Amino acid sequence: MKQYKVIQWATGVVGTAALKGVIRHPALELVGVKVYADDKAGQDAGDLADTEKTGITATQDAETIVSLDADCVLYCPMPWDINEICRLLASGKHVITPCPYWYPFFQDKEAAEQLQAACKQGSVNFHASGCNPGGIAERFPLTFTGWCNRIDRITMTECGDCRAYASEGVVRELMNLGKTPEEADNNPIKEMLKAYWYEPIEMIAEGLSSEVIEYEAQHNYVLANQDIDTAAGVIEKDTIGLNNYRHIGRTREGTEIVQEQIWYMDDIELNRLREKFPIPRRSGWRIRIEGDVNLIVDVDFPPELSSEEHQAQGLSTTGFHLVNAVPVVCGQGNPGIKTYLDLPMITGCMGTHQVDR
Ligand SMILES: NC(=O)c1ccc[n+]([C@@H]2O[C@H](COP(=O)([O-])OP(=O)(O)OC[C@H]3O[C@@H](n4cnc5c(N)ncnc54)[C@H](OP(=O)(O)O)[C@@H]3O)[C@@H](O)[C@H]2O)c1
């Protein structure tokens, strides 16, 4: 089995899952860890990932990391920096990331060109991935379109009770929860989200050998009818208690591709909201295809998991996917941005056995 040398860049929630995955993966060798936090610098990677010692010490020094001999960097910071990504690519290291750019060719042509040029310079590949986007938004629906003939609509819905989500930044800024309608209407993130969700819509369209000719962004919400206690603070009465984004692309042939999120601060009964909202399921994701084959694919974690376990496993899927993608992404010729339309199947890896057939 071919071995690959890997650097883990940033060890937040996703990065720590990825680090653990690299340490355990039979085809991967950890050669470096870049951290930002002072208290993580100098620590053994195994201590950061809660595994056995690795002998690899985390460093805050980007120069040391760039100068390492490595095949691939799992780049997981927040915020991300395209110049940093391009520097790693130009230094001859493949980059796999949960951050943008999943399919930047139309929404951010400049970034696409910059990434392609850096890939050519370093003779390597770039792949942006994750759970959603990176799985639910395009990889899995594209797979199921192979079961269909005429396709009228493909809808990807993420829903969940967010009361246990402690990140105020994500909950209040990205999800609009706790904002007044006026604040939500003026939230600059709405413009960023359009490009963010139109990317996987365009990838699906290319996968269907089509193109998007019409775009639409919808924003719906329901206000709380009382104060609601959450891990991110109190969601006050008359602020947004349920936020619904829908981003839609219509292709030349009339297929509608919908990326939807329903985030709420209540239980499934929604008694603490001013009105009910149609929620397809308690939590997780639904992929729905309508056409001559009508398909519903539900993806979720077992209900007995606590909401903390739910969230941790959800974010692990993103980290582990990056890890499992390393041999596939590093093994591709023709340097450049690799989307799911360019890559063979990415699977888990439990051993080193190779079938001779
Ligand atoms: N596609 C998907 O499905 C998906 C899902 C989840 C997350 N994501 C993306 O994955 C990335 C990581 O998410 P996360 O949940 O792991 O976030 P997180 O827990 O907030 O971790 C981010 C990490 O970034 C590092 N950091 C701190 N200050 C920084 C700075 N000034 N500049 C750059 N990096 C800094 C820190 O690393 P150290 O702790 O090592 O110091 C921090 O732990 C985010 O960009 C997020 O948008 C994508």
Architecture overview:
The two termini are 15 Å apart. α1 (13-24) packs across α10. The protein has 357 residues and is α/β, with parallel strands linked by helices. It has a 7-stranded parallel beta sheet with strand order 3-2-1-4-5-6-15, with helices on both faces. A 6-stranded mixed beta sheet has the order 8-11-12-7-13-14, with helices on one face. The chain folds into 2 domains: 4-131 and 314-337, 3-Layer(aba) Sandwich (Rossmann fold), CATH 3.40.50.720; 148-292, no CATH class. The chain contains 10 helices and 15 strands. Helix content is 30%, strand content 26%. β4, α4 (82-90) and β5 (94-97) form a beta-alpha-beta unit. The protein is globular, with a radius of gyration of 21 Å. The site of NADP nicotinamide-adenine-dinucleotide phosphate has 24 residues, from α1 and α10.
